[in-house]
Amino acid sequence: MLPLHWQHPHLLWLILPLLAYAWYLRQHLQNVSAWSSVADPKLIEPLLLAPKQPKRLGYGMLALVWLSAIVALAGPSWHLVELPLYQNHQATVLITSLNDTMLANDLAPTRLARMHYKLLDSLKRYGDGQVGLIAFAGEAYVVSPLTQDSQTIVNFVGDLTPDVMPVAGNNLSAALKLAARMLHDSNQQQGRIIVFTADGADASAIDTAKTLASQGITISVLGMATPLGAPLLSHTNGKVIMSRLDASSLSALASAGDGQFQAFTSDNSDLSRLFTASPNTPHLPGNISAVSQACQPRFEKTCINTFRFWHNQGYWLVWLCIPFVLLAFRRGSPWLNLP
Predict the structure, then answer these.
(1) What does pTM read for this prediction?
(2) Which of 126, 163, 322, 329 is paired with 150 by a 20 to 30 Å CA distance?
(3) Where are the beta strands (DSSP E) in 187-247?
(4) What is 94-157 written as a DSSP string?
(5) Interval 25-32 mean pLDDT
């Protein structure tokens, strides 16, 4: 057992008023009345209205509660707790397609609604590092720069609809370049990009993915469509077209970006694979409590520390005070009428 440690030792000075009050009580108990100095106490006691025996029990209870409260506030501790700290510095950029194809209903109720749910799950489950959000159609725009406050991005998800995009299209290459610029502007040498889209990837996007992969930026893709697809009205020629999942081009995009392609699933297994398959994701040691006191350099994007603190044991004394405090509310309590 470690030596006794006080978290707030300056509060122990509150014992001095208790000692002064104890000295006063001693004088009061010895001299029941001022007449004791001029007459025999045995002759005076029958004439006094005060009780013959002062309320010694009440004084003792008051002193005990007072002392226990002071010691509890001072924070006694004899147990040193050591906790591991894990801080993820990895940066992730989420790219969402807001093309009209996201309005198809092969993923009920619509692909767009399902993508909203996937974004929210991604931010809540895996948004512990720096996260940014980009939306694209014919052009790409930053919805939120890299931030460690994922709740800020959550507030924007509901507003992501094709109506907010000024230009229709599928310029995924521009979105990837914008994500890379966002990472470089934040002094991130590495990072990962996860694309949520129902459209295929053209040659320009695949070439961009290869370039970013050579720079240490991985690209993974979540296909927000089904192989059967759904009919959509084309805005270019007014004809009904079938919008299907282009798994081959999206797989080629993920392969070029050293990432992984996953088709949409109704559970979170697709997100779990995407967020854990990145080669830049650090692997924690099995016994995290045994890590050293300093950040370990072999974890490029991870800082692991052990935090030691004294566990305050003063709350045990609060339980000691409760029964005596409750007695103060009873009629005839020895706490009543104390000078």
Answers:
(1) 0.60
(2) 163
(3) 191-197, 217-223, 230-233, 240-243
(4) EEEE-SGGGG-SSSSS-HHHHHHHHHHHHHHHHTTSEEEEEEESSSEEEEEEEES-HHHHHHHH
(5) 63
